[in-house]
Amino acid sequence: MRLLDRHVLTETAVAGGAATGAFVFVMVAGNILTQVSGAIASGRVSGWEGIELVALLFPGVLPYALPLGLLTGVLIAFGRMSSQQELTAMKASGRSLGRIALPALILAGSLAALSAWLNLEVAPYANTEYRRLLVGSAKDNPASVIVPGKLNRQFPGIVIRAAERDGEVLRDFWLWGVDERGHLKESIHAREARLTPAVNRRGEGVLRVTLTDARMEKRQAGDENFTHPSAFTTATLTSLEFPASGIFKDGENFQRKLRWLTTTELLEAVDKGWQVGPQATPREKERGQMLAMTQLMSHLAGAVSVFSLAFLAVPLAVRVGRSETFVNAAIALAVALSYYLLTSMAAYVKDPAYRPDLLIWIPNLIVVGLAWFLLRRASRH
C-alpha cells in the first residue's frame, strides 16, 4: 500500500513541480523583460542589484504559480494513470478514488500552507523591497532614469533628452518646459547637466539640475503662434529646480499597496482602517476596515485554492482520461481562468454591507463542491 502511495505522490510531485516551474518562469520572465532589464540597461541599477531584483520576484509569483502548477500536475499525473489503466488496477485492489488521491491531496494541503505563509509574510516583504530598490536607485542617481537618445516625460511639466550619459553626467542635454496643455514655454540646451535630488526651503522634494555652458530660451506667455521674439540667456554655470516629490518616493512618502502588508500590518489595518484619516466618518472607517479584512481573506483564499483546484483536478483527470500533456494543460488553464474570473467578480464588491470578505471565499466553495460531486460520480465506476 505504501508503494502505491509513493507512486501517486511521486507522479503528482514531479508533474506539479515541472508545471509550477514553467508558470514561474513565464511570470518572472515578463517582469524581467519589462522592468529589471530596462533598469539595468539604463543604468538605474547595477548588475548585482539586478540579480537581487530577480530574486525578489520569486516570492511574489509563487502564490499565483502554485495553484496553476499543482492543478496541471494532478491533471497530467492522474490523466496518465487513468489512460494506462493504473487507476483501474488500484481500484481492483480495494481502494476508492478518494483513497488513491489521498497522497496528492496531502501534498496539496502542505503546499496550501506554504502558499499562505508566502502570501502573508514573504511576498509582501519581497514586493516592498523590490519597489524600494527600484525607487531608491532613481532617488540616489536621478540621471539613471534618463535613457540616452529618448524623450523622458517622467518629471511633471518638463521633457528631458540627453545624447549621452556617463554616471551622473548627462551630455548634450535638452530640457523643454511645457504648460498644462502641453504647449512649449521654455527650452534649455547645455553641454553637460547633473541631476540631483534636493529639498527646498519649504521642505518639499525637488529635482536640482546643474547646467554647464547653457543657453536658455523663454517664450512670452500666450504667444502660441510665435509672433513675439523669445528671450535668450546664456550661462557658464547655473542651476534650476523643479518639483519632484511625486518621483522620488522614499521613507515616509513611499506608498505601499494594501496587498504588500504583512499579517501584523493587515490586522492593524483591520482595527484602524486602511488609509483612514483621524477625521474620517464611521462609514469611511468601516470601509477602510473592510478593505483590509477582504485583503487578508483574499490572501488566505488564494492559498486554499492550491488545495481546492487540485481536489477538482482528480475527478476531472479521471473523466477526461487523457495522457497528453497539452490536453491536460489546456484543461488546467480553462479551469484556472474560470476560477480567477469568479475571484475577480467577488473582489469587485467593495461595499461592506455585502461582506466582500466572505464573498471572496465563494469561488473556493464552488470548486470544492463541484470536486466532491464529480469525485462521488467517478467513484461509482
Write up this protein:
The structure is a single chain. With 381 residues, the protein is an alpha+beta fold. The protein folds into two domains: 2-139 and 274-379, no CATH class; 155-243, no CATH class. The chain has helices spanning 2-41, 47-83, 86-92, 97-140, 263-272, 282-320, 325-347, 356-359, 362-379, and strands at residues 158-166, 169-178, 184-199, 205-218, 231-243. A five-stranded antiparallel β-sheet has the order 1-2-3-4-5, with no helix packed on it. The longest helix has 44 residues, at 97-140. The protein is elongated, with a radius of gyration of 28 Å. The chain starts with a helix and ends with a helix.
Topology of this protein?
Blueprint: H1 2-41, H2 47-83, H3 86-92, H4 97-140, E1 158-166, E2 169-178, E3 184-199, E4 205-218, E5 231-243, H5 263-272, H6 282-320, H7 325-347, H8 356-359, H9 362-379
Antiparallel strand pairs: 1-2, 2-3, 3-4, 4-5
* Strand order, largest beta sheet: 1-2-3-4-5
The helix/strand series, from N terminus to C terminus, equals HHHHEEEEEHHHHH
Cα separation of the termini:
21 Å
Helix content: 55-70%
Apparent shape: elongated
Concise summary:
By secondary structure, the protein is an alpha+beta fold. It has helices spanning 2-41, 47-83, 86-92, 97-140, 263-272, 282-320, 325-347, 356-359, 362-379; strands at residues 158-166, 169-178, 184-199, 205-218, 231-243. Strand 2 (169-178) and strand 3 (184-199) form a beta hairpin.
